[in-house]
Amino acid sequence: RPVQYLADYRPYPFTLSETRLDITLAPTGTRVRAEIDMQPKDARNAADLMLDGGAGLRLGSLTIDGAAPDPAFVRREGEVLTIGAAALPRTAFTLATEVEIDPEANTAFEGLYLSNGIFCTQCEAEGFRHITFYPDRPDVMTTFRVTLRSDLPVLLSNGNPVASGAGWAEWHDPWPKPCYLFALVAGELVAVRGSFTTRSGREVALNVWVRPGDEDRADFALVSLIKSMRWDEEVYGREYDLEVFNIVTVDDFNMGAMENKGLNIFNSKLVLASPETATDADYERIEAVIAHEYFHNWTGNRITCRDWFQLCLKEGLTVFRDQQFTSDMRSAAVKRIEDVQVLRARQFREDQGPLAHPPRPDRFEEINNFYTATVYEKGAEVIGMLKRLVGDEGYARALDLYFARHDGDAATIEDWLKVFEDATGRDLGQFKRWYTDAGTPVVTMTEEWQDGTLALHLRQETPPTPGQPDKPARVIPLAMGLIGPNGDEVLPTTVLELTEPRQSFRFEALGARPVVSMLRGFSAPVMLRRQLDDSARAFLLAHDTDAFARWDAGRDLALSALAAGASGEAGAGGAYVAAIGRLLADEGIDAAFRALCLQLPSEEEVATHLHADRTVPDPAAIHAAREALARDLAEAHEPVLAEIYTRLRSEGPYSPGATASADRALRLAALHLLSRIDGGERAEILFGTAGNMTERMGALAALVRLGRAERALAAMRDEFGSNRLVMDKWFSVQVMAAPPETAVAIARELAARPDFDWKNPNRFRALMGALAANHPAFHAADGSGYDFTADWLMRMDPVNPQIAARMSSAFETWVRYDADRRARARQALERIAALESLSRNSSEMVSRMIA
Ligand code: B3K
Ligand code: ZN
């Protein structure tokens, strides 16, 4: 299949009015009978009927209005079945097909597959074509009526239940939808049940379906769902629209979860949680993803995407909404900092390398390769900027208009921007570049101070990205404030709009020279370059009124210390260590904030920072600098860290809420530093006594880093050997936290274990993702990290191409390293490229990376 281009979009020449599916489930021979009522859009200009259908579909019969068409007009080529216009009626007709498929052989987990005896589906983006012949594109929408036949006790599909009997069940979804939102589930499952009354008084039955035995770990997901439903009514005025909302958990799932209409399917790790098995981060993520998938009901399902180039229309907006939800449920400041950390670690990195693409790409070979940090997280940032530019009220009016105007539509980014223009009167022509242009703008700021006037000179520049050498200026909202020398704010948050390559802003009648607090709340996804000495950074860390900017000042201090340390400068961290000391001693600062400030930037983040400054990162030197800085912090502040560690001992029953988890985060941050100087004694004790998984994993990671985790790991395996989700953590921590010299060997050993069930995506990611995240180990000078990863990608590719292709992005930064590493990485990538019958997924990824 050739490259697809946005510019080639053409509407589908047929309208669909109903799809009826009758599916008889069997592991190796599932029969799918499909009846599609359709009509040509233009009766005079007859078009061929083209249906998508994967190679795995064994076609039994095909009829049009009950009669088989002349075989001369029917042809199957690649993944397309074409029925010539000459064989089609000019008015409404029913196309019926019968196919047989083999769910058991489906190891790619796309379409209909079996996960531990449970039949389930994943159709986004193009999985439905592996279930039946169909126009598998998001702008073809219709209602679905589904009959499922099986002896399994629970049979689910989208919409409302119509009727059921022994061995069958019928479902009807009254809301027209594209086939990527179709789902079915059949299995031995039990429901944790709840209910929700919508604000207009309709009762909705809520079910979280799990495997028998897992019921006691599903309550948190159910409570999160109820909170999400209420929040979407209160904040966006969006009500749920069916009698039932089902969530099903499965163990084998390529991503986190899927928003199928009325029947969300979840990776079990994003539903199942108990204090003994899940960490605080797991709980927070479960709450966020349950909300995300639920919010898709309006942003994604009721209003879907015209084509897959518009993916960020639903994903960026839904991420933005789930971020707002988490801010409301927990701490807005903490959430913002966490989101920026993720954006910088994943999206900035993507934008710097060969895989850079705009939030709305204009070409792809395999759409599954574009479910990226750019489409999701940067897509959400772009909406945050829009909201800042038009104000909260303007945003609310625009969203109301979006829902009113486009309900039932398959929409585009143009439609989205138009509602903002119509609702607020603002011209968004220049703003649109955020959607069409790749790359992270670099904003450079210089200051000029004279006679009570401060001038800010700003310059924006976006480095070239693949296929986009020149980048015109964008509109960049820069939220800023001014802090006087005594620490008082002399200018509260103001938004400067940068629209030109260079622009200056003046602030007059200032008594004394203030310190500029810039990019408050991370108001735009840009890199800010400014000359700021360590004492001004420390000043902002102490006095800024904006929590994000305050944290970021500390981050800058840490990054400059690490950059200097990595280039061999001794004692570079003095200013940072001293500033952290003042922060730690200040009981007026909340625990969550202090915990965030105590976490050193990751090695990957340091490498991204160096690369942006045109310095070749040395993974071993970065690692050494980071270890040294952690040790300096611990030595300088041992008494206060020890006091925090002792005082924040967990008491009473576990609660996953923001306050208790912030205390645990601060306590564990202290533990990690202390373990640098206490030989791991505290970690050892904590591992043995902690009553929750958060502290156990924190302690275990510290022990692994010290190379003294053997006993703890054995204990954990004995206790949780049969709990897949905990064992994923067990695999992961040993590689992620391992000292770089041993990590690859450990990964090799773990991969040889019989319980390294690598065809399970979670288990594969637990090991391979952990190695990719261990920066000095993945980039080991001898190439062993690259080789080990490439070997496994080659093994995974024929089994599950989506997983192999996604994991291949571990290599996306290879060009930033030294010539020796580059040669080894290239060799590894070329080995993958040479694989016989490499999937389209991996082939596109690898060729973009070695282009
Ligand atoms: N929309 C799905 C992701 C589908 C990925 C297909 N490769 C989950 C989500 O973003 O909510
Ligand atoms: Zn989503």
From TrEMBL:
Keyword set, alphabetical order: Aminopeptidase, Hydrolase, Metal-binding, Metalloprotease, Protease, Zinc
Cofactor requirement: Zn(2+)
Domain named Aminopeptidase N-like N-terminal: residues: 71-181
Peptidase M1 membrane alanine aminopeptidase domain ranges (all copies): 221-434
EC assignment: 3.4.11.2
Name of the top EC class for this enzyme: hydrolase
Zinc-finger found in the keyword field: no
Any one of the GO BP annotations: proteolysis
CDD domains: M1_APN
Coiled coil: none
A Pfam family per the record: Peptidase_M1_N
Database matches in NCBIfam families: pepN_proteo
Annotated protein name in UniProt: Aminopeptidase N
Organism, as annotated: Paracoccus tibetensis
